[in-house]
Write a structure and sequence with these properties.
The complex is a heterodimer of chains A (about 425) and B (about 475). With about 425 residues, chain A is of the alpha/beta class. An eight-stranded mixed β-sheet of chain A has the order 6-5-7-1-8-9-4-10, with helices on both faces. In chain A, β2 and β3 form a beta hairpin. The two termini of chain A are about 40 Å apart. Chain B has a two-stranded antiparallel ribbon with strand order 1-2. Chain B has a two-stranded antiparallel ribbon with strand order 3-4. Chain B is mainly α and about 475 residues long. Classes of the chains: A alpha/beta (about 425), B mainly alpha (about 475).
Amino acid sequence: MNRSAEPYLNRRTALAAAAGLGLSVSFLGRSAYAAADGELARRKLVIIVCRGGMDGLSVSPPVGDPDYAGLRKAIAIAPFGAPDGALQLDDTFGLHPSLKAVHRLALAGQARIAPAVATPDRARSHFEAQDVLESGGNLVYGTPSGWLNRTLQTLAPTRKLQALSVGVEAPLILRGPLQAASWSPGGLQSRDARLPMILADLYAHDPLLGPALASGLQTQTMAKAASSLAVAQEQAETPPDAMNPMDAAASKPAGANLGGNPEAVRAAGVTVAKFMTAENGPQIVAISVDNFDTHANQGTARGLLATRLTYLDNLLDGLSDGLGPEWNNTVVVAATEFGRTAHVNGTNGTDHGTASTALVLGGALRRRGIIGDWPTLQPARLFESRDTAPTLDMRALFKGVLVEHLGVERRALDTVIFPDSGAVAPAIGVVA
Amino acid sequence: MALESERKLMAAIAATRFGLGARPGEIDAAMNDPRAFLKAQIRAEGAEQPIGELKSSSDNLFVYDGLRKARQAAKAEDAVDMIKQVQMQVRELVINEMAARGRLAAETQNGFAERWTLFWANHFTVSALKGASAPVVGSFEREAIRPHVFGRFEDMLLASSRHPAMLLYLDQAQSAGPNSQAGQRRKQGLNENLGREILELHTVGLGAGYTQADVTEFARALTGWSISRGRDAPGAQADVGPVGTFMFRPYLHEPGGRQVMGRVYPEGEEDQARAILHDLADHPATANHIAQKLARHFVADNPPAPLVARLQANYIKTGGRLDALAQTLIDSPEAWTPDAAKFKTPYEFLISTWRATGQAPDLSAPQKFVGSLSVMGQRPFSADSPKGWSDEASDWASSDGVVKRLAWAEQAAAVMSGQSLDPNDTAKAALGARLTPAAAQAIGRAETRTEAFAVLLMSPEFQRR
């Protein structure tokens, strides 16, 4: 059994299950490491992967860039002050009108944008670019584990951090030798107390099922304990269908990733925050938000993209709100695999591009302007005459956060976490 | 008797790895000649069709189109209700399609043919997450995939690429060449979504050496491939097909010759893209891409290289005959390794559970069947990208995924225990020689029948194939 799978858990209720799984469970909380790591031990990091290619030019529209409106035509976000106009950040940039919570945080110095960031991948393939974004490699299939998992491994000798992904599917970014927990709203909970022990025996030599079940049961226990888990509890307390429970496991689909209405997304954000603030809760969290692939009719202040950005805004609002005082110890990065074409395409959408916007949020950011340079949208400056040109390597952004926020050493960053990336310097000055 | 035991193991593998899980008696039926048992399912007419009140794509789009028009005509205050009504109707449609498909999968005696079909349906993913294609995700599979699964790959590729569901899902229907009549007159232009995904996902795959220029050129060739809005549409010609059928619209088509992956294609209107698809189907990189994916689906997440090479060679030799490819897979020793390397997806887990009981989901309450799928992370026809559902264990065996399976297994076990099923017999019939002594013992020692069934469903050998 994976010895590093020492999950956070509610010790009273999960003890039997954990013992049944033959885990060597450690109850050392963060206080045990406080002497070694000081305040670093409280730090939390949330990475939100916005899948599908999120359109940076709509997330943080450069309405002050003289070429913006001409390139975007019908899908350009309106200027500052106009009806449904961009929410102003500085002379050049605003935020999409749906990103109200992000804007509020930005005005308080708690949200910043990196408007021209890209992974090292240039193939404009969702799947290749997501692979590079999450694996932290400099090319596709460079490494089979995720960079967040390798961060946990790197810190393990001095600081045992727990990690959680939100969603039924395990994202690559957290995959690797260290078992990370996962959780999604919905579903019934296991009732037979003997079953985990019986299965633990059967899974003893199964490298996949053993650690996954152990970690999952403990997360479930935590979900029960967290009082605000309205969704999970409501589902858990739904009695099985008397006629045919065989297919009555749920009436409310949860989906692989966060979906549903904006209020449910905000509630999920709060729930995740409650996980993170619980005793021995996860400090590292990965969340996916889907459906950013807006090839047609992407809309402006309303429409397809606005719907997705409203979800993202609600999730971020729920997270920042739910974290309470711990927001000051938290950094959230929302990033996407690539941006979209600078020109509107023929169907009032945008095709796969290169650089996009990443959002960096947290209670203790440095109050400065944009992260990285703005290449402008002048025709000659567009990458391959079509996309926002990258001025900042995605790895530099992540490295900067890992250095400044989590105190990860440069050597590990350059070799293990982001292999062969010595030439990519961390973007510092982001976190106070 | 080594031969006898080998045959028993092969019979179990035929039903559980190649198929969708054994129904009672299925492993016995395969015992005499497991390979022949599978090959008998390869039929020129393609895969079986789900049975139910299922409509054609054209009918589905016609209804949807009517609702959309009614909504546009409605007063603003009524529009919100009408949108909800449309969404509910589409949801119901998707659920019914999935339940009918699930019932077929649970009942069929051709488990291998059905798994083979699901592989191709996933290869050519159309997702209900996109509103425009949602009404036709089920009919797409019935019309473009099932008839072709044992025919030529090129025919399936063509059927998929011309099907309204795909044209809507990947935004092809409205794409216009910049120099076409529509491009010149209106502010309509190119959309490269379908062209890119055909190259990347359906045919040659990443790493085949195509460039952004190839993507754009292919997208230009595809302009004009569109969908009929019916004879009642303003300005429609008399000879157009019904709403939602394929239609070539010359005024969207980019004039001129194209060059894609080093080959030159002279102007040919509708047939220009068809010629490109022909060459893509014929491309050695497509043979490799498909061989890789098939071997990964049937054998292991990291498939054995000799198997991939053999499948690829067969594809090239036969010009992409899928029946021959299925035969080659069945004849390959690598596909029969005792190791159960593949972890079931939620759909496979559900279907194999139904098959183990010898029953099928109740079509009168389809939302229960699909609700279970959703909670386990596989919303019906709703893959989150055109790449389709993952085929790798590391994606599905997350801690949350396993716990949600466990919770569902307990519910299913409670139902099974109320039926006249014996847990030990059910385990033997479902897994045959793949049932390990450890699991058989744990099932035998369970305190209750419910617990015994839950152990069976959650045993490593039932979770894998």
